[in-house]
Amino acid sequence: GETNDGLEKLSVKEIGSKNLDVVAEFEKSGLKNAANFVVIGHVDHGKSTLMGRLLYDLNVVDKRSIDRLQREADTIGKSSFALAWVMDQTSEERNRGVTVDIAMNHFETSKTRFTILDAPGHQDFVPNMIAGASQADFAVLVIDAGTNSFESGLKGQTKEHALLVRSLGVQRLVVAVNKMDAANWLSERFEEIKQQMSAFLTNAGFHNKNVAFIPCSGLTGDNVARSVPQGTAPWYDGPTLVSALEAAEPAARALTAPLRITIADIFRGGIVHPLSISGRLEAGTLQVGDVVHAAPAGELARVSGLEVDDEAVDWAVAGQIATVHLSDIDGAQHLRLGDVLCSPQHPVPTVTKFTAKILSFEHVLPMQVSVLRGRVDAAGHVEALVATLDKSSGAVVKRKPKIVQPGAVARVRIRLDKGIPLEDGARVVLRVEGKTVAAGLVEVVDEVKKKAT
Ligand code: GDP
């Protein structure tokens, strides 16, 4: 067929592949301790400040830069903003002026190399959070411990974000109970928040052992990278935020499964590399010289170069976020955000119909929805409510319900206007007019029938 001819054409070229046993290379590389995380939480609860503090205290940002940011912040009378600007600053420099949708910041402790996935300055935070969370090993949920702030966050985005990341497959959560300085480091306040959130998170499907609560202050830096000063919180003898991050180990890597990279960013028009993409390897391995299949375009491409953490590398493995330089691709203009690079032997099917097991946040009934998967936002509709399910056992409670109540788990049938690359086990979010109504797991996909040519 056409696909194989293309593959042969590509394989006769001089390619400079080192033909590495990537799994073996990875085993001996000592790269195991690397983790990606997203930062979520209600607006103003201190996400940017906390991450700025982390980067500053771990010496990712030099003193001169922070001094400059501090002077700028002082000039406009917002001294406390300096730390929050660190995140934007470092990612901007890193990307040399290229606009990206998902900004990445890296930092390292003696144990682990971390990547913070951040969606900077977007009006609607949720689609970008979904894109970020799809690439994350775990999430950091930032909660403002200040009077009334925690409570208003609960009505706001605190719960929505936690539910969303859980629905997207994130199992581990580090809850930063932030702004403890504003709560006078009161143990009662910390315990109150911990109790309320624990109950909610358990109900949302997080296991207790996978959730850590860490009191801290991004503004002062107490219990972020260093412990609380003596006397400030004598009741607390747990880890710092950084230690808690190190303890949140990344999920198992699907090294031997077929390659899957969902395209999170596309860079075109570079002089050395005319076409590059970046994204997380969800499964499999990749090396320079490999041929990949781009779905749904159905095009083959050669991997002419790879970068991980801004360094040129020979290979990349599941769990890493890589920049992939592509050559020999026809119809490169057809590549879009959310497309999937995959193994030519096992490409991802393009589907228009599927069943999903969802957790509903709002009422769900047969209706028009946007289906979000990674960066893809596809129009479609809920065609049928198959059954409501028991939350813990997954057993059928009621067949063909008329409506699914908020908080209930259900199996629904979805049809898309246009096919997207999708397979069993993918995580999708359903939204209506910018509001999240449900999220869940793709169970069965029906491949679009190949057009007869
Ligand atoms: P984001 O919207 O979640 O990213 O929140 P920001 O990091 O922009 O912080 C929102 C506001 O809270 C700013 O005025 C910060 O200076 C303030 N803030 C952030 N962290 C702390 C903290 O640990 N203690 C106190 N007292 N204020 C903080």
Structure overview:
The protein has helices at residues 2-11, 22-29, 47-57, 63-75, 82-94, 125-133, 149-155, 157-167, 187-203, 241-247, and strands spanning 34-40, 103-108, 113-118, 138-144, 173-178, 211-215, 260-262, 265-268, 275-283, 285-287, 291-295, 299-308, 311-313, 315-317, 321-327, 340-342, 350-360, 368-373, 376-389, 396-399, 409-421, 427-432, 435-447. The chain has 453 residues and is of the alpha+beta class. The strands form 4 sheets. It has a 6-stranded mixed β-sheet, with helices on both faces. A hairpin with a 2-residue loop joins strand 12 (299-308) and strand 13. Guanosine-5'-diphosphate binds at residues 41, 43-49, 80, 84, 178-179, 181-182, 217-219.
Task: Report Rg.
Answer: 23 Å
How many β strands by DSSP? 23
Low-confidence stretches: 92-100, 449-453
How would you state the average pLDDT, rounded? 84
Strand content: 25-35%
Q: Class by helix and strand content?
A: alpha+beta
The count of helical stretches stands at 10
Main location: cytoplasm
GO molecular function: GTP binding; GTPase activity; translation elongation factor activity
GO cellular component, one term: Dom34-Hbs1 complex
Domain Tr-type G: 32-253
Q: Helices and strands in order, then pairings?
A:
Elements: H1 2-11, H2 22-29, E1 34-40, H3 47-57, H4 63-75, H5 82-94, E2 103-108, E3 113-118, H6 125-133, E4 138-144, H7 149-155, H8 157-167, E5 173-178, H9 187-203, E6 211-215, H10 241-247, E7 260-262, E8 265-268, E9 275-283, E10 285-287, E11 291-295, E12 299-308, E13 311-313, E14 315-317, E15 321-327, E16 340-342, E17 350-360, E18 368-373, E19 376-389, E20 396-399, E21 409-421, E22 427-432, E23 435-447
Parallel strand pairs: 1-3, 1-4, 4-5, 5-6
Antiparallel strand pairs: 2-3, 7-9, 7-16, 8-9, 9-15, 10-14, 11-12, 11-16, 12-13, 12-15, 17-21, 17-23, 18-19, 18-22, 19-20, 19-21, 22-23
